[in-house]
Amino acid sequence: MHAIRIYIIASHPLFAQGVSSLLEAQPDIQVVGLSEYSPDVVREVETLQPDVVIIDSAQSARGQITGALLGRIPALKLVGLSLDEDSISITYLQQKTGAAVEDLVTAVRSLPSVGWLPLQRQMRVLVATQGPFGQRVADHIRQHAPAHWNVSVWRAPPLIPLDQENLSLMLPKVLPAADLLIGLVECAQMAYLLPEMVARSGARAIVVPIEHQGWAPQHVVDHLRSAMEEMGVAIALPKPFCSLTMRTYNEASWRVEYGDAHIAEFARYFGRPELRILFDDAQRVTRCEVRRDAACGFAQLLAERLPGCTINQVEELASELLQQHHCPNDGVIDPDYEASLHEVADSIVREAVRREVVPFLRPIVT
């Protein structure tokens, strides 16, 4: 399923190897990096994007490391490990808890929701849809959401009134209670309805993906940001949806960092695609596992279609499949990226498969 990615920073290699061996023995945990402290470690953590960083508390530079990491990656989960004191400290979104060393695996497995989200009840997700793309995403989320989510869907009627007064009458008086609202709008009028949906559902965070320029023009985006700030509700506006990670959304110089636990919990499962691709000796794909799916299900499509193709075909096949996937982002040039949103999505997909392909490429013999 979705392996928990771990990066270990330790002052002694044997210490790091011991912790790594303990964690790698767990089927749902993957150690993606080991390092002593250096000026480059923060950059490497940013590149690898682990779910959890474990820091040897014996390091004299631990405070400096922690400050640097949280300064660059506010939503990173840190586990400080101290063998001398037989304790661990867990820091997530500036909140801290503690546990004994023998609970390390449990601490690593505790997703950002554990201890920070109110898990005496399920995380409640309300998905608001308007058209065929939104319905496809809602169906995929509802089918593949983890067991501790409670997913509700509200579907807007096909005809959206233009005036604000009649717009509000579209909503039922009572919406399902939600912690997180996913607003899959396909016109500006529907976007203006989202603050009222937040108020009626009690949502504390909202994700409004922008897959097409016409769905959420800049004046709509500005309105939503202002309204959510006034309401004290966290907002993410990933453009495109598949740029969303547990810490950021958007690409390149337009990347935005956020620190909301509800949005991060959603992005653990749906957002920027993450895959694990395995090859045989003939460099053909034997297996493709989905670590994080796109909200529209595209990573699952890759997992089904990539096995059997050669390593040199993987990237181009992924790009071709995206073209056939009927994403709503068209060829219109986006003024921020100076490229179409389809090109941005294509770059995200290529990067996801390239990250898996590169370690298996055979060097060219000259």
Instruction: Specify the number of helices.
Output: 12
Strand content: 15-25%
Major sheet: size, sense and barrel closure? Answer: 6 strands, mixed
What is the CATH architecture descriptor of the largest domain? Answer: 3-Layer(aba) Sandwich
CATH class of the largest domain: Alpha Beta
Strand order of the largest sheet: 2-1-3-4-5-6
Class by alpha and beta content: alpha/beta
Fourth CATH level, the homologous superfamily of the largest domain: NAD(P)-binding Rossmann-like Domain
**Which runs of at least 5 residues are low in confidence (pLDDT < 50)?**
111-121
Average pLDDT across residues?
82
Radius of gyration: 22 Å
Instruction: Give the strand tally.
Output: 17
Series of secondary-structure elements, N-terminal to C-terminal:
EHEHEHEEEHEHEHEHEHEEEHEEHHEEH
* CATH topology assignment of the largest domain: Rossmann fold
Can you tell me the overall shape? globular
Distance between the termini: 40 Å
What is the number of domains? Answer: 3
Determine the fraction of residues in helical runs and give it as a percent range: 25-40%
